[in-house]
Amino acid sequence: MPRKYFRRFMPNVDKVREVKGLSMFGDTLFHPALWHLNRRSAAGGVAVGLFCGLIPGPLQMLAAAIVCIFLRVNVPLALVTTLYTNPITIVPLYLIAYEIGGLTLGARGLAKPPALPDWQWTNMLGSMEAMSRWMMSLGTPLALGLLLLASMLAGLGYLTVRGIWSVYLRRAWQARRRSRLLNSSE
Taking the complete model, does pTM exceed 0.90, yes or no? Predict the structure, then answer.
């Protein structure tokens, strides 16, 4: 089930190979291990996506792809998983990371974070610049908190996928065993 489920949404590697902009990577991006679905590659891809999803700015997917190449885990799953961060979820995640960083640093009475800048859809560049300044003003607690939160999410995602995959396999094996026993008793 997990393999069949994920494969429904996975792009065909041959179709991706036809994208001209990706030809600069040569065969590196199309190594079979980066597109194969098994417990290890799927769990690793989800973990990489969850970790890289907290990278600020538009570098999340690029970082996820690079890490996947080095770790030889599933690229498409990692890229899709980075999408858990978006303009709606990023601010709460960063505030949680700030709190985690503050707790880890032992900052008693950690200063309340500065007010969020107003997001103006008509001035996207200015809003992104204001958001960057806001993130920089959070400093060390945010940086440490992001690293810790990303690590926790990646570990939890990895263990969850591995666990779900293992439970499914055990149930499938038990169903096959029962089927064999029923067929042999007839």
Answer: no
